[in-house]
């Protein structure tokens, strides 16, 4: 099946701000072949996102950032999450440009080559957000401090961790967001190839 198997009956703008919320009435073809019943779904409409895991292949270290996340406030003991450098594609930029810009803004890092990891929908049951995920080569030797854009209210602490410590943080649940888990597990599986190419 493809997009031709969807019939949009109505689309209502429920909220317009930095993000958007739409209510959509639709039908789609079912696996038996006929069109199914009318469904009503709310869709959180977001800009696409770029996430990058800065990695120093010489030191086998990753650079992660820590910042407050309102979405974790009611469901986590500590809503300051360890994450990847990330940003939204909210103007005419390529994903690679966003990765490099955000690395400077959030971690004061200049990235070398970027290695595309994957692209994915983090929550397609109710959001159209699409994530571009990269590994970025960096020199972690001088990384650290607190960064971010004051005009955006950013207060971001930089952490440099040996890859093994970051993987342990995934195992014990200290790292509990999808992009970070995916990127770190990918790096664990591909570390030898990456270090061979980037060393």
Automatic annotation (TrEMBL):
Gene3D superfamilies listed in its UniProt record: Nucleoside Triphosphate Pyrophosphohydrolase
Cofactor(s) required for function per UniProt: Mg(2+)
Nudix hydrolase domain boundaries: 45-183
Enzyme class of the recorded protein, top EC level: hydrolase
Domain of life, per lineage: Bacteria
Reactions listed under catalytic activity: ADP-D-ribose + H2O = D-ribose 5-phosphate + AMP + 2 H(+)
EC number in record: 3.6.1.13
UniProt keyword Metal-binding present: yes
Keywords noted in UniProt: Hydrolase, Magnesium, Metal-binding
Any single Pfam family the record assigns to this protein: NUDIX
NCBIfam families: nudix-type nucleoside diphosphatase, YffH/AdpP family
Family per record: Belongs to the Nudix hydrolase family. NudF subfamily.
Cited function: Acts on ADP-mannose and ADP-glucose as well as ADP-ribose. Prevents glycogen biosynthesis. The reaction catalyzed by this enzyme is a limiting step of the gluconeogenic process.
Entry protein name: ADP-ribose pyrophosphatase
